[in-house]
Amino acid sequence: MPELPEVEVVRRGLTEHLCGRTVESVTVTHPRSVRRHEAGAADMAARITGLSVAAAMRRGKYLWLTFDEPGVGSADTALVVHLGMSGQMLVQPAGVPVEKHAHIRATLDDGRELRFVDQRTFGGWVLAPLVEVDGDLLPDLLAHIARDPLDPRFDADRVVGVLRTKNTEIKRVLLDQAVISGIGNIYADEALWRAKVHGGRIASALTRPVLRTLLAEAQAVMTDALAAGGTSFDALYVNVNGESGYFERALAVYGRGDRPCTRCGAVIVREKFMNRSSYSCPRCQPPSRGRRASS
Ligand SMILES: [Zn+2]
């Protein structure tokens, strides 16, 4: 799964290339890519055609487009894009050969095509009504997703208060998109390392200042990743690949098992957590105090 900085790069690219463009037609060539849209491919095509793209939006790792209906105003439907493991949003000039795994194509009024390319077909498009949640308009299927640390209205004090009530491992809570969104396995490890907190420690046992530092570090690591990777995408290609490595240079601990901690020199440890790998420094992030037996 792409993490927040990668999705934000895609969002910025889509903003640059799509806003103001009108969708003239939509072609779906793989039913799996619209399986979340229960009314089917023809319904999706009929409802998007004729709308112009108003904005590309993001919350956490979730991405959607909003539309204007010519002569009417804001459309009340959003197009939610699930990037899955391998989804890409490409904006291609007319005449560029169609990619092998291009499963949805939307023709734009300037002749270009927006193509959803997804080799592994875990991703897809779905239409969802917009609803107001805590002062923001969100697709209804994302109404439960909490604000992410890069959201201007992210309320760190409130989130610290929620974390203090959680009697479970802090890493597990950081990954809970209903508490704080946009933090995946990679940036959870990076934020925990920066804040010198072991992910296995119990959230409610951590002090407010430590939790505040942790949230600030989550914000900082994603801002840094965005700065490192946010300028490297080709102007024509608006894409993301969950397995691409262009943010890797910014990582201090994730994926660095058996290598020295860049801060203290101790050997980075890899552990299993929630069926995935967690990386931490045994010296900077002592796993003791408040740690629950592994579950
Ligand atoms: Zn260390």
UniProtKB/TrEMBL annotation:
Name the positions where DNA binds: 101, 120, 166
- Active site (record annotation): 2-3, 61, 276
Q: What InterPro entries does the record tag this protein with?
A: FPG_cat, FPG_Glyclase, FPG_N, H2TH_FPG, Ribosomal_uS13-like_H2TH, Znf_DNA_glyclase/AP_lyase, Znf_FPG/IleRS
**Keyword Hydrolase included in the entry's annotation:** yes
EC number(s)? 3.2.2.23, 4.2.99.18
- The answer on whether this UniProt entry bears the keyword GTP-binding reads no
Q: Name one Pfam family in it.
A: Fapy_DNA_glyco
What the entry lists under PROSITE patterns is as follows: FPG_CAT (PS51068), ZF_FPG_2 (PS51066)
Q: Which residues form the Formamidopyrimidine-DNA glycosylase catalytic domain?
A: 2-123
According to its UniProt entry, the protein's GO biological process terms are: base-excision repair; response to oxidative stress
Ranges where the FPG-type domain occurs: 252-286
Q: Which cofactor does it need?
A: Zn(2+)
Against PANTHER family, the record matches this protein to:
FORMAMIDOPYRIMIDINE-DNA GLYCOSYLASE
The entry sums up its family as follows: Belongs to the FPG family.
- Under what name is this protein listed? Formamidopyrimidine-DNA glycosylase
Organism annotation: Nocardia jinanensis
Q: Which gene encodes it?
A: fpg
